[in-house]
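Restriction endonuclease, pasting as requested.
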Amino acid sequence: MSPWVLTEWEWAELPLSAEDLLAAQSHLGSALTAEPSAGGFRLRTHGVAGMVALPGGVLHLRSKVPSLHLLALADSAAKGFSWGEDLVGMAGAEELLPLLGTLYVRRVERLARGGWVHGYREEEAVQSVLRGRWLVGRDIAQPPTHRHQLTCRFDEFTRDVAPNRLLLAALRVMERARIFGPPVAARARALAATLDGVQARAELQAAETLLASDRRFAAYRPALGLARLILESTGVQAMPGTHPLASFVLRLAPLFEAAVTRALAQAAAARGLMCHAQRPLTLDAEGRLTLIPDVVIEQERARLVIDAKYKFPAEGLPPADDFQQLVTYLACVGTHQGALVLPALGRVPEETTLNLTTFGRTSQVRVVKVPLGGPAATLGRALESTAERLVSWLGSPPLPTPTSVYPPKIHSPFEMSNSKYPI
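Structure tokens follow.
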């Protein structure tokens, strides 16, 4: 099968057949733009990284952001922590999937060396002696020949709990998929053998609940974050038998937005401010029209609206549609301050301030670019620095508003109640 490579935001002419193109579109959707050409099709992707297996070959999707930095971004989006030894020997790695596989098995190996954490799981079984709670109603309906058997419900102390199941599910994917590399597959197979008696299930919500309620699983968080990323990007359940990996597509826009949101929530909490994430704004009294800004930060009556966009505009500024969307958010929230946060490939933060006037209303909008080109270990600090600058801007004096202009009536939930973004 032929290997093809696409780098996001760059056009490339590839000799794909119509069948190949349809298969690629089914996996990538709106992230793929295609035009017919003499040699096949001109293609461009945006906001995706990974691979897609097509009938005629394999399409490799590369990000403008280095692979190691994408994984650092994923960790920042989940829960911020120091990488430390995770980075040893990975500085020169370029391919996303082998790098992801190596990082994941390294974290799981660390957990295995410390011993798998056990937990309680509720089970039901037929016993010859009473154990736990006796389900009398079920046994009464049984024939007399089964009266010596007791149906019991009890808590079993076992390692077959949701976090271990999730880790094993991701290990099974790596064990059977060649794209992560033979060394990763061999290490994943060896680790899976140590989880004998554990079912491989992608119980994401159950694992997150147990992680939040039982501090004995705190060390699992880095590995579980990558396990979730692997399973959500592949869409594969770990089941017995061989299942070829049709695609591994990492969506970069939600990853960047989550990392920015978390950094803003932490910066706002440090200053005692309210931070609302993904909270719907109602435009009409009936609630039929809603808008959802990424983040709104509040300090008494002052508000700052922040919208994160995973884009690399060639002109330096985002397209006009993004500004129009942000200005609409500002009108809904009743503020004049807004910011667009974008990634940048350099090492130095970039910032541009614009004064926008729409329908007699003046708004101040900052375009802030987070530098993702420095060392991967410092990416978290770059996000924190950007968030701190934006939060500190909230206390600046407001722009003068023309007295002859009456603001539209917006039915905003910010006038009725407050909710804090959980950290």
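Note for the archive: Residues 331 and 408 are 8 Å apart (CA to CA).
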